[in-house]
Each structure stands twice: as C-alpha cells, then as structure tokens.
Amino acid sequence: MTNPLKLQTPIIIVNFKTYLEATGRKAVELAEKAEKVTKETGVCIAVAPQFADIAAVAKAVEIPVFAQHIDPVKPGSCTGHVLAESVREAGAVGTLINHSERQLKLSDIDATIKLAREKGLVSCVCANNPSVSAAVAALKPDIVSVEPPELIGTGIAVSQAQPEVVTDTVKLVRGINAKVIILCGAGISRGEDVAVALKLKTQGVLVASGIVKAKDPYSMLREFADATKH
Amino acid sequence: MTNPLKLQTPIIIVNFKTYLEATGRKAVELAEKAEKVTKETGVCIAVAPQFADIAAVAKAVEIPVFAQHIDPVKPGSCTGHVLAESVREAGAVGTLINHSERQLKLSDIDATIKLAREKGLVSCVCANNPSVSAAVAALKPDIVSVEPPELIGTGIAVSQAQPEVVTDTVKLVRGINAKVIILCGAGISRGEDVAVALKLKTQGVLVASGIVKAKDPYSMLREFADATKH
Amino acid sequence: MTNPLKLQTPIIIVNFKTYLEATGRKAVELAEKAEKVTKETGVCIAVAPQFADIAAVAKAVEIPVFAQHIDPVKPGSCTGHVLAESVREAGAVGTLINHSERQLKLSDIDATIKLAREKGLVSCVCANNPSVSAAVAALKPDIVSVEPPELIGTGIAVSQAQPEVVTDTVKLVRGINAKVIILCGAGISRGEDVAVALKLKTQGVLVASGIVKAKDPYSMLREFADATKH
Amino acid sequence: MTNPLKLQTPIIIVNFKTYLEATGRKAVELAEKAEKVTKETGVCIAVAPQFADIAAVAKAVEIPVFAQHIDPVKPGSCTGHVLAESVREAGAVGTLINHSERQLKLSDIDATIKLAREKGLVSCVCANNPSVSAAVAALKPDIVSVEPPELIGTGIAVSQAQPEVVTDTVKLVRGINAKVIILCGAGISRGEDVAVALKLKTQGVLVASGIVKAKDPYSMLREFADATKH
Asked: A84 with A116: CB under 8 angstroms?
C-alpha cells in the first residue's frame, strides 16, 4: 500500500464514524469481517476507524486502514491535532479528508492532500456535490468521493435516488482529472446500490451506517463485494 | 482513577503534543520513563499522548493517561471527531480540554466538562489568563490550568516570569471554586520552576517541551518530581 | 451612552438578526418604532441591526444601537472582520457577543469584552445555560443574557417554559458578580413573558422574532415596555 | 453593474481591510479618490470597505463597491452574519470571498459563489496558490485572485518576486475555466508591479496596504491605473 497509485479498484471504504458498534474492540471485530470478505472475494475493502482504534485495527488486519481525518500540521506544538506521522506509525495507509462531518477550509484541503502524498498516505477527499467534486479533483488527490449530506445515514442511496449527482460528478471530474479514483457515498445500503454506483462510472463506494449498523455486517459487506462483480 | 476527586496532588501532567519525540513507539518509551519516576518518588505524573497512541501507552503503563482533547459529541455520525467513549476504552482516564492550541467555544467547553464527568474522565481545562481561568472555574472542571500562550515553548517559566498571572489566577479561581485543582504551565523547564509554582499555591504543572524535548527526559522528570517535595 | 455603567434598566434589546423584515430601509423603520415606544414609555429599548445597517439606524434614532458581533482584533489586516472602531464610528454604543448563532472561543469572549470596554462599547454576552452564564459573569461584561438555544425562535418563552433556567442563572451569576445586568431571551413573545422575566430577577430581555416578525412590531414593543412596569 | 459579465478589465480592487486609514469617514474619502482616478483614466477601480461603511461609500461614489465577505446563509436567524441581501441593499455590487484573512470551508465557498450569482453580486474568490486557484476556477466565480499569504502586506510584489505563482495560476486556471477574470495580489505597491501582473496574463490586481497605507493614496492609485495602459 506504499504506492497509492496501485490502489485496487473497485474499492469499498467503510467509515466507522463514531458509532459505538465500531469503537474499540468492536472496531477490530468489524475490520476482521471486512478482511474476511476481501479474502473470500478479492474485492478491496478499506476501513476507517477512529484515531484511537487505528493501531489495534492495523495490527489485526492486512486490509488498508484509513484515518478519518488528519490535520495539515507539522510535528511540534499542535495539541489535540492529528499528525500524519502519528496515524502512519499506527498503521494507517490513507486518510479521509474533508468528510461532510469534518470539513476543512479550501487551503487546508490542498495542504492536507500534499501532506498525505509526502507522507505516503492515500488521500480520499469528500465533496458534497458535483461542482465541489470538480474543485477537489483540481487538487489532485488519489480519490474523490461525492456524498450529498442530505442523504448520509438515510438508507436512501445516492446512486439510485440522485443518479444525476453521480453522473454530473463523473463528467465534471473527468473533465479536469483523468486519473483520480471516483467514489460515491450517502445512503448506500444494499448490493444493488453498489452495482448502480459502478454502472454510473464510479470506481467504488464510501459507506458507513449501511455496513456498521447492518444487522449482519459481514453478510452485507459480502453482498456489497459481490455486487461489484456484476 | 474512576473517581476524579481522588486525583493525587501535586500532579505533573506531561503533554506530548505532536512532537515526533513523543509519537508512536517513542510515546510509549516516554510514558515508561514517567512511570519510573512516579514509582521512585511517589509523585503523580500523568501523560497526554496523541489519540493514536493512547491505547499502546495505556497498555504499557499504570500512571494516568489523558487524551489531549475530546469532542462534545455523542456516539454516531461524527467522522473525524474524538469520542469520549473511544478514548476511555483505549485506556484514557482524563482529558485536556481547550488547550491554547485546540481552543473551543465556551458552550462546548461546558458541554465537554459535563460529558467527561458523565463518562468518568478527569477534565483538565486550559485557560490563557486569570480571568479566563475564573470563567473556567465556574464550569466546575476537575482541574484548571493557566497557560499564557506567549510563554508556551519558550523555556521561560510562567511561575518565574509572570508570577502575578499565577497568583491572580489562584485568587480569582478560589473566589469561585474551592475544590478545583489549579495548575500552571508554559515554559516550565526546571525543577525550580515547579517549586515556585507550588509556592504560589498551584497544585502542580502542565508541561510539554520542557520534558519532551529535554536532553534526558527521565532526569528532568525526576528533577520536577523532586522539586514538588521542597 | 458613553458610560456603560449608566445603562438604564429594565432594558429591552431587539436583535434584528438577518431577518429581511429588519434589513436595510426596514431596519431603520423598525428602529424608529422602538424609539417611539421609548419616548412614550420611558423604557430603554436598544436595537441590534446588521453591520451594514448600523450607520443608517444610528443616524435615524437616538436610542442605543448595538452591533450583533465584533471581532477581537486590532485595526489592520483583518479582511472581513468586524472592527470595534468601525461599528463605534458608525454609531453603535454596544455589541452583542457570543450569540448562540455566532459563538466564540472562550479566550475570544474574554478579549472581546476587554476590547469593548476599552473602546467604550457596552458588552452584552449571550450564554446558553446557567453554568455558562456564570462563566461569562466571571469575565465581567456589562450584560449577560441567558438564552436556551432550543427555545430561540419558538415563541415559547424561556421565562415561562423554563423559569428554573432563569432563576438558576440569576443565582449562579449573582454568586460571582453583583453588578452585571442579567437578561433572558428565547421565545419572548408577549408582554407577560417580559413581566415574568423581571419577576424572576432579570433586568430585561433580549428579543428577536417576537418583535421583528410580529404582525405589528410597534404594538408588541409597546406591550413589552408596558409589561416592565408591573 | 447588475451584469457581472460586463465587469470591465483591467480592474484594480482596493481592499480596505480593517485599516483605520480606511474606516468610517476615511473610507468615504479613499473611495472618492479611487473614483477620481477612474474618472481621469477610465480604468475600473473597485473598493471593498468594511461592512459598516458600505452604505456611506456606495452613496458617495459610483465606482463598484464590494463587501469583504458574505456568509452563505439565507435571511432569518443568523445573528452576526453577513447577509447577501443586506450588503446588496447597502449598495455593494460584489463581494470578496475566502480572503486569506477570512477563509471558508470549500462547500461554503461553493455555496457563497452560487448565492452571489443568485443575488446579482460579482464574486471575487481569493486563493493562496496555483492549485487552490484551479480548484476555485472549477467553481465558476466571476473573478479568482491568487494571493500568496506570505507576501501580503510586505510590499514585495507577487508579480515580481514570485512570477511563477502568477503564471502557474494562469495556466492551471485557464485549463479549467476560459472565462473567469484572473487577478493577483500580495505586495503590489508600485505601478510597475501592476504592469508586470498584466504582462503575466492577469486582468488586474487586488491591492490593500499598497494603496491604503501609501503616503498619497490618490497618486499611487493614479500610478497603478496608468500602469495598466502600458
């Protein structure tokens, strides 16, 4: 995973957010289920646990582990901030940036993408709509993920309810950046949502409650992974 | 450590900030040195490593481990935020709040203190001057620590260079809150700085570079601990 | 109005927020209605229009005009910030600080209160609950106004629906600060709400939609003013 | 000025920041000098005074007046925020967005540009480097202005000291957006700095201290305007 450009697609990134179902010991268990599905299907699944869980999760599994955020700061006097070097040493190979629940100033997104690149972390930058996705693409991250905030956590999949958001994003982003991996997220909760997302020319999904709060996260992840093959 | 009121004083809290000298494996090593001094001297020393290092540090030592910050949020959809439950499960028994490098809105300081209390975490709230310390004291945290930002990281100790900041803080805080533990910080870099801080009626110090960037952190911590006994 | 200590109580402060009904020309008209009620009843009514309306309002009326916010900055390079000197020259004699819709870091509240004092502006600091009101009182502003955010704009008056919020605030604040003027706000929409607020030992109210969005703002303001006399 | 597309270039935008030399009565005087130069030379000069000065400035002069910032909010409950409708009614015809001293989250920049367009305000979005300028260009504002923060206020002109910042910006921006007006700023303090900026394919400059703090702002503005003609 040291070379972000070799990131395998399609990819499913599971954001653990601050769900108790994916905190501490349960974060490790959920990551192990994701790894099991990866081993069974060959589909790349990455997990994004909370900061305090990165080390234990990264020790327990071999699938890619992402931080949920890093700060655009250098080592030194930044109490309470999240240092790239720290999550890297804990085992993270990538990081979410600018998630709708942890948005950044534009100049900080730019600085964080550059910092991630410098420190060997895959950058996955979130955007709330097609125009913002295009702006993000201009900053050349490894991944851009479009997620309309109003659908996050609803179980109403962006790929099905707002396909034009996805297609507009793909169109605008590709007009600016041919290489960036494009994901979509928000409401993704069934295999079919994933299949449609791929049909719309994305290369994967960013999912949270659809997996974390599923009755049987393993089975749902398996359904997601299988859906990438149709 | 479940009862904050039993927190032993004098206390020395070592803030690891985002120093590389106190990140990852080195965070564990530094915490072990602090534990060694505590065992030799009986003086309470707490350590505040980065989020990703809390679990490993808490596993390695028995001295109190603090988070550097927590967010006033409930479990759920707070990507990139720091959940009280998460740092608690990782082994933290307390948290810094409102450090000058990670300041919060007033209503969030209030909410975070209440959250820490509810979750069994000792709250140590930082303040930049005497009047702000008094305001913090009105919110009834376990600990208030006054730290003039202009002295942080300078090696010029607040207790010696600005004793009136410390004495004014003690006076204003005690007029409002008889129980809160009062610390001072900023520039504390020698045992004498600690001794003077205690003479000025504080109950300990919050220190960072004075220990983390010392040539021999163990010896300096030992000097600090010994100084609390004069 | 140059001496904040001479601020007459009871006082009614009308926050124009960003309501179109109180923007531009309509801000001036509403302020003139407030002035009319002041002249008829002798009750002190202050108005807090948007920044761009301060000058026109202050030119049109003689009642106190407050800014809705100022930034704790000095003259110079602070593009897009609100300079104390600027609102002062435009005619403001006071400012709201830390309104729930424009909250500040604790150290900035402290700095802004001191700046307002230095520049001859009355400081009215908002707080969301009793403990935060107490913290604010420790910073010695001229006025503290408690406003539970969940009641703002509802028409359900804090003084009637949550009288304990008001009485707890008065008790905690008076334990720390004997001089500060105490207001309450949120949902104040009838004269009776004002009368009850005063009975609970506040010295006035901070009101917004109750006046700005009233069918007849003049009559409602008159009802408020008359209610202060019972 | 109701049609932003008719904005005349080259353009000089003078940001008054929070300089006392450009506050209140002095803001009007400085705007009048800018208008005089426009009348003498035919060069478009816009001024961006503080919020409280917009109305008086717009009443005194006929040249374009910009706000220094607006918030991406709708009319209603946004105490202390800057409403597009408010600055519009006060006489502004445009607004700066994301100045380095008043930076916004990426999604807020996008929302503010859309809001400005909807309300008939010209949008001038600031960016700190070429890649951020490209990201801004993808959001389709009327104007993008690149300003390396480290040169702001130094008197060392970006066009002369870091010409590659300007040329890289022009190249990246034009690869994404053929129409947006491109300005540069930071350190512009002589006519020659302006001439070089135009030679590097920008369409004008954003200037602050170079004019506001000049010994003779009128003469310096005249020098700037004349320099656009070479």
From this structure: yes
Triad A30, A31, A32: Cα angle to 5°: 90
What's residue C157's pLDDT? 87
| Closest-CA residue to D49 (of D76, D20, D77) | D20
pLDDT over 50 at A2, yes or no: no
The H-assigned helical ranges of C177-216 are 191-199, 209-212
Distances (CA, A) of D30 to C84, D58, D208, D212: 20, 12, 12, 8
The pLDDT of residue A3 is 43
Provide φ and ψ at C216, rounded to 5°. Answer: -130, 85
D61: its two tokens: 């002069």
Could you report the per-residue pLDDT of D198-228, keeping only the tens digit for each? 999 999 999 999 999 999 999 999 999 999 9
Contacts with B102 from chain A: Cβ below 8 Å:
78-81
Q: How confident is the model at residue D6 (pLDDT cuts 50, 70, 90)?
A: low
Predicted local distance difference test score (pLDDT) of residue A66? 98
Q: Give residue A187's region: left, alpha or beta (phi > 0; psi -120 to 50).
A: left
**3-class secondary structure, B208:** coil
Neighbours of chain C (3+ CB pairs under 8 A): B, D
- Pairwise CB contact (< 8 Å): C138 & B135: yes
Tokens of A57: 């999760």
Interface test with B, best of A16, A18, A209, A211 (most B CBs within 10 A): A18
- Residue to substitute from A104, A105, A106, A109, interface D, most D β-carbons within 10 A: A106
* D near C: at least 3 beta-carbon pairs less than 8 Å apart: yes
Beta carbons of A90 and B52 less than 8 Å apart: yes
Cβ of C56 under 8 Å from any chain D Cβ? Answer: yes
Residues of chain B contacting residue A90, judged by C-beta atoms under 8 Å apart: 24, 52-53
Q: How many residues does chain A have?
A: 230
Cβ separation A105–D105 shorter than 8 A: yes
d(CA A215, CA A36): 17
Closest CA to B186 of B217, B218, B209, B169: B209
- C159: closest CA among C123, C121, C186? C186
A211 touches chain B (CB under 8 A): no
Within 10 A of B179 (CB to CB), how many other CB atoms are there? Answer: 9
pLDDT digits over D95-128, tens only?
Answer: 999 999 999 999 999 999 999 999 999 999 999 9
Average pLDDT over residues D18-47: 97
Taking 3-state DSSP, the helix, strand and coil percentages for chain A, each rounded to the nearest 5, stand at: 45, 15, 35
Q: What is the pLDDT of residue B15?
A: 98
- Please name the residue of chain A whose CA is at the shortest distance from the CA of residue D177: A176
Q: Does C78 contact B at CB distance below 8 Å?
A: no
* Predicted complex ipTM: 0.95
- B20/A50 Cβ within 8 A: no
What's the pLDDT at B7?
78
Q: Is B69 a catalytic residue?
A: no
> What's the whole-model pTM score?
0.96
pLDDT band at B6 (very low <50, low <70, confident <90, very high): low
Q: Given CA atoms D97, D98, D103, D107 in this order, what sign does their dihedral have?
A: positive
How much is the average pLDDT of C55-67? 97
Residue C18 has pLDDT above 80, yes or no: yes
**Burial letters for B47-86: b for 16+ Cβ neighbours within 10 Å, e otherwise?**
bbbbbbbbbbbbebbebbbbbbbbbbbebebbbbbbbbbb
User: Helices D130-137 and A130-137, interaxial angle, to 10°?
Assistant: 160
- Cβ contact D89:D55 at 8 Å: no
Q: Name the helix (H) or strand (E) containing C206.
A: strand C204-207
Mean pLDDT of B147-166: 88
Residue B133, pLDDT score: 98
